[in-house]
Amino acid sequence: MSSVGILGTGTWGIALGRLLVQNGHGVTMWSALPEELEALRQNRSQKNLPGVTIPESIRFTASLEEACAGRDLIVFAVPSIYVRETARRARPFISAGQLVADAAKGIEAQTLMTLSEVLRQELTPGVRLAVLSGPTHAEEVARDRLTAIVAAADNEEDAKAVQAIFMSPTFRVYTNTDMRGAELCGALKNIIALAAGISDGLGQGDNARAALITRGLAEMERLGQAMGMLESTFSGLTGMGDLIVTCTSRHSRNHRAGDLIGQGIPPREAIRQVGMVVEGVNALPAAVKLGQQYGVELPIISAVDAVVNGRTGPAEAVRALMLREGRSEMPRDAGEVAYEQAIVENATRQRTGDAEMKRVITYGTFDLLHYGHINLLRRAKALGDYLVVVLSTDEFNWREKGKRCYFTYEQRKALLESIRYVDLVIPEENWEQKRTDVHEYHIDTFVMGDDWAGKFDFLREEGVEVVYLPRTPEISTTQIKKDLGK
Ligand code: C2G
Fold first, then answer.
1. Is the CB of 437 within 6 Å of ligand 1?
2. What CATH architecture applies to the domain 3-177?
3. To test the ligand 1 pocket, which listed residue (416, 448, 475) has its Cβ within 8 A of the most ligand atoms?
4. Most CB atoms closer than 10 Å: which of 214, 249, 356, 357?
């Protein structure tokens, strides 16, 4: 039996509160609107959940202290745009070690922060954070319809703690430690749902909706990967799962708003008619900015942004999307296509058993190892079956690159050898050794990040394929040192 405080008495907050009471927990719910509290106390029902009775044991309060102090779990179920302000007001009553789960989906427009990052910024240091996200219409959860959801946190222990409190015979909770990935999915899928609604409103059918879901997921994955999130998150409940339920359901407010817009109702009027928060509209500015910041093309999201902000009509936006130049389904640039193609070829070769060992080599300092390096090593390995990493020695770094590493060669070597993509680590002692390395190690493919594009083309004379892969844009050792220095 846990005691839970839920901030926000909208449909989602009420549905979660009801579920937690059924699980045997004590629930106190807070709202910023006194009149809403009074109506809930009197009627024990919520206007958007007809026929759903709110359990008598749920206490409603206007005091954040009463809702938060000493609770085993605090759930933020206020609309995404009120999370920061609510957290700021609740801060004095939430202490380090308490568990806080965000159930709102969205990305803050001004800061591009996910809501867990907003909570991290506003709440007392040491508060344990998690998010709840997945294909979960409140209208169905409130009626005990079977549902699956993700409890994501930076560590498995906190995700498990939330899982234990919410798990029930009708509400199956999965844990995930890619919290930011889960949050990005939760925010972006609402925009794709707007697009699906617009398509329906224009009289388009299931084909168009399936195309929007599929290509919408591809946009989400591209942006997420550029942001260092896990691919598996996007094909999971918070990505694919939530996309399907939001794009194909009459319950979805984003879909409903899109449908009205597709019928020709001006966006602002359509949102007013839906009468509840349309999170897809709130998420648009951040999604467009993130796409620009990470250099990821988001055609569907950009089209929705143009329609919602009145720069173009729904029909024109759809025509423009359809008339774009033909594309491969594979990810964008040459390196990525080579990488995807290689995965397909490798898998085929392995399946047909005539897999001769394809060997790949790459060079680097890999000091303060970070996910940009991992992205590079993962894609390099995908180009073959065996990856040799040639690691700059401390002397080479100092003499040739003027770099003094934070970790010694031995330490950096140990780190690299622990990575599952890496098969062998050998020392880089000079610039010239590449010509001999590729023969000594029978290399098929040489790989470097595209900050070195063109610099090693001469290796093609040695019969080696040379591939430059896109760097991960926003992370670098220099950046890490600068940030740590602040
Ligand atoms: N990398 C990346 N994305 C980042 C940072 C690095 O893809 N955000 C790639 C680089 O392009 C390089 C590899 O990770 O392919 C290792 O990066 P560094 O350790 O910075 O390597 P560097 O100092 O460039 O040394 O003889 C070649 C040199 O040894 C390369």
1. no
2. 3-Layer(aba) Sandwich (3.40)
3. 448
4. 249
